[in-house]
């Protein structure tokens, strides 16, 4: 076990190093940060001086070495555009991204699993067919399009919709259901962690972005649970359970669903990394003030320190999540333990 | 029944909130200001934000004409000395009185090593306080456009800056941000109430502003709230849904939609930015293609042929959807020295262009690479694509190289381009700015190899000529020389469009910098 973890850990370090190297090499091709930083009137001499001050004239190996040494101590340098420490900026943006990712992961699990179970149990049901067809949209439409469609429906259309009259007595204004098309709403600062979960309009602002971000995972989980359910329901122990006269409810949820969850947990774990990483697009569409949005702006402005730090952070998330999933495997799946050690005696 | 009542209650609450906050102005644009430090970044959005909070000695009205700001009057007392009489009784937002010390301090700050506004003030030798409300600026030589230049220099409080250790704009080397990056203490029409970069910036109206009833009628906007929205579709959606009152930069393709929406309107004006192509006449051989004779651009007939082959009306109608003003010179209406006569284009004439090419020795045309940005100007790449087709009609085979602005401008500065697109704005609003960068043989953005001794001489002379009639004649002569050379093939002046609610009056400004002091709610 210890040897396994150490081996994994060394592999992870290597992955981080490669990511750093690749991202650093990439930055050589995205243009000149100095051009973005100074006005067009700035003379060539001043530009050269600035380039020198930023260390852009050092050989690439030296720049990379400085970057690695500083990054290990948590110092990602100072943003060219904002002139603030990148580490601080990322930390400020982190809560927004994590809250959005967590809510969309929850959304995809809480909606995806029941839908998967339902479609698994009622293979030919009308509703199941509807779920499957709709879920195709979730997989095939690009995220930004889903986001824009939601904005169009729930922000623009509802805002301009005429009031609905009820028996000529009241008028209900559909615009009370209108959702904000951008931003996080009101946030509460809890000791540096700015949360939108504690205010009504903060929660309201979460709805559309988390659906947009979670739709793909929802589809994935639903289809995964469905196919696992179909498989498990065919197994002998389910037949045996039926023969014992157990209630359908107990069989479906107590026996079948439980056994489908191992791959679901694995996939969910791995998908959390992608949710965080792919939040870039959702954040841009909804002007969600998270890290992904900052990264995209940094790309446009050639703000190399932010780009480098963001890529490293995302790589770090992936590596850590993978590490945890690997270790969970070890804990959850008895077969892995069987192969390597003590249980061999039984054979 | 209870649900209906609840919905009704909510609806009333929303309606009430709407009524109460009608004096707030919510607006958005693509990108936030980089800093609130008024001398640290000479960049459009940053200047816009700062100009709400900080005043300059000289302000601009919505037509960009100079009007008294913190200076009530100014005049040259000697050829190279300007004297400014300052406004009395003005206070900074935190209560400090404004006087000549603050002016001297602010100019020194703008001149310091880390300032991004050095180019506006580098003609200044010294700034001296004569008395508390009189300042004299001595320039290195006579400088007729000093008042234009210093309208960009915003005035900070000396005591406040010393108290917070921000006597100089922030240096890239410093690891911590300075106090002035997120805090501001100006004398301007709005007070910075909350600054959350890239998320939200709130400014409340400065009831005590000196300019109410002096430079502008008192605004009935109580607060301006700015939130950047990077995605253009979301920005427009937020305007259509009523969450925003004003969008600075709606995308061109959505203007019709905004206009057609009841309760919204679009304001348009020409921008102080002209888009054009440049050709390098200076090199002996083109860098990217092999052409017999080396560099065809050396021949004026080739340049004229290319000019005449560009069908600018089609570009305006199809590519720009009507959102451009075809240009005959590379500067816009509103810049001193611009005249309508100069702005006349050579006629579009494919046959004449073919003939000119044949006369120049290229009856079958030639191959050339066109370098374009794809994220800098309105529809930049599409304009270049249209041009490729138009030049093909006279036999010039153009390969288009469209790339990000960060790569495009670097490559231009490394002199790696034969044929390129560029757009030019004029912050000083004086033609000299164009000549000194784009036309003078040593101009730092002159990548055309164009060198004309008389034009160089005129450019130098107009820097110090204080007689305005003589200076205007020089500008005219210089424009004639540049225009006749056709080293720049002018395309059009960009158009600015702002989208806003019908109930809002906000005069559009050709420098794309809204002056919220002029905003009024109906």
From TrEMBL, chain A:
The chain crosses the membrane at residues 12-30, 100-118, 130-154, 206-225, 261-286, 306-332. GO terms for cellular component: plasma membrane. Pfam families: BPD_transp_1, BPD_transp_1_N. Gene3D superfamilies: MetI-like (1.10.3720.10). It comes from the Bacteria. One of its GO terms (biological process) is transmembrane transport. CDD domains: TM_PBP2. It is found in: Cell membrane. Keywords: Cell membrane, Membrane, Transmembrane, Transmembrane helix, Transport. Residues 94-329 form the ABC transmembrane type-1 domain. It is a multi-pass membrane protein. Belongs to the binding-protein-dependent transport system permease family. This is ABC transporter permease. It comes from Thalassobaculum fulvum.
From TrEMBL, chain B:
One of its GO terms (cellular component) is outer membrane-bounded periplasmic space. PROSITE patterns: SBP_BACTERIAL_5 (PS01040). Residues 1-22 form the signal peptide. The keyword Transport applies. InterPro entries: Peptide/Ni-bd, SBP_5, SBP_5_CS, SBP_5_dom. It is found in: Periplasm. Keywords: Signal, Transport. Residues 67-444 form the Solute-binding protein family domain. The keyword NAD does not apply. It comes from the Bacteria. Pfam families: SBP_bac_5 (PF00496). GO terms for biological process: peptide transport. GO terms for molecular function: peptide transmembrane transporter activity. Belongs to the bacterial solute-binding protein 5 family. PANTHER family: OLIGOPEPTIDE-BINDING PROTEIN APPA, PERIPLASMIC BINDING COMPONENT OF ABC TRANSPORTER. This is ABC transporter substrate-binding protein. It comes from Thalassobaculum fulvum. The lineage of its organism: Bacteria, Pseudomonadati, Pseudomonadota, Alphaproteobacteria, Rhodospirillales.
